[in-house]
Design brief:
The protein has helices spanning about 10-20, 35-40, 50-60, 95-110, 125-140, 160-165, 180-190, 205-230, 240-245, 270-280, 285-310, 335-345, 360-365, 375-380, 400-405; strands at about 1-5, 25-30, 65, 75-80, 115-120, 145, 145-150, 170-175, 200, 320, 350-355, 370-375, 385-390, 410-415, 425-430. With about 425 residues, it is of the alpha/beta class. Bound molecules: uridine-5'-diphosphate-xylopyranose. Uridine-5'-diphosphate-xylopyranose binds next to helix 8.
Length: about 425
Amino acid sequence: MKIGIVGLGFVGLSLSSVLASKGYEVIGIDNDIKKSEKISKGKLPFFEPDLEKTLKNGLRKKLTISNNFSLIEVCDIIFVTVGTPQKLNGTIELSIIKKAVKEIGKVIKKSKKNQIIFIKSTVIPGTLLNVILPIIEKESSKKNGRGFELISNPEFLQESRAIQDTKFPHAVVLGGYKNKNMQKAKNFFSKLHSKTPIIITNHQTAEMVKYANNSFLATKISFINQLSNICQNIPGSNIDDIAKIIGLDPRIGGKFLNAGPGYGGSCLPKDMKALIKFASDVGINPALLNAVEKINENQINEIILLITKEIGIISSKHITILGTAFKPNTDDVRESISIELIKKLLNKKAKITIYDPKATENTKNIFGDKIIYSKSLIDALNGSQCAIIMTQWKEFENLNNIIIKKMKKKIIIDCRRILAGSKLNAKYYALGIGK
Ligand code: UDX
């Protein structure tokens, strides 16, 4: 069994590394030459826990990394894992995936194999049958079901736990026609994930599942954030206790109920926008989805309100931002609320110092010399007039009274409630805890 994987981002690189380390012969393709050269030497283009050692293990076995599409001619299975970034109007950019499947079509034209092509990239319902399939059929001069099989296989992995999620997904969704190739696809996945439910459906339902999943997660987050804002106005109330208790109700479930500055990252905000636009395009008023997004966008104002309440005028104040990554254990700052907060504070002429254990370089690419980058928690707080915890890094739990002594004004705003405020010699405010 030879497997081709096109697009080596979080999804594609994790999948290539995991499959190769399990002994499959894998060819990972990325058209970015520098990136593919780096990966072929066992180096990561981004930080992701456990990925480097899995990649190195894969490379020692049967993993080939290249930018040469023609290598996938010999593959039995091809995964498409290229990005579908967001356009300004909320729709997704299809040019990258169109280019990738065009190349795949050309390559499989020459192949005698009846390849199964799995689309893992997130695309709005209808894209496989209306956009991708015609391109592959045209370029390959073959018909779906005869010569190749196109199947939607949405991906649910989370950054920071990409290897774990690739090895043990909670579900495998296969969207396509129920035929012999679908049976082959099912056999492949049941061998790979013997304990995971495999659900077979049609193309458009599988495409929609990804949006349903991510919009539900976003809804949970906006729900708890709205309650958190209410709690903040009930003296003594604590949003974490409320989340823990309602989470015990099996109808609700305890995950994704951490109140905070709002959801960021490369998926949730993008998928919400695409779904809202798609809903409007098909004549549905997405009232709930709009509210979820609005609550998320407003969360940053709650933080600014807290800052203003405590330090007064923001202009020329030394503010420390702890964490710029959109969540812990990643260096990814895409759509990070922390980055948005820094932009807003800079507009108000604050003097910003940041510290993030992994995301400093990516933050520098955005702000250059407009802000100060610290190498440690202590340095970041030296002379600070207000510290704001934005990302739930474990290391920030070390913030203690000795470190706080370095601050000029001892004000801490904890957007993730990771500190025991009552033990700190500081004015401590937390999102979701009523004062
Ligand atoms: C998400 C989906 O979880 C995953 O299934 C999909 O494949 C890709 O998109 P990811 O972008 O890696 O994964 O991040 P996720 O862990 O979902 O977090 C997204 C954002 O929500 C982060 O900014 C995080 O801080 C925030 N979040 C998450 C909360 O504020 N509270 C929570 O309880 C959970």
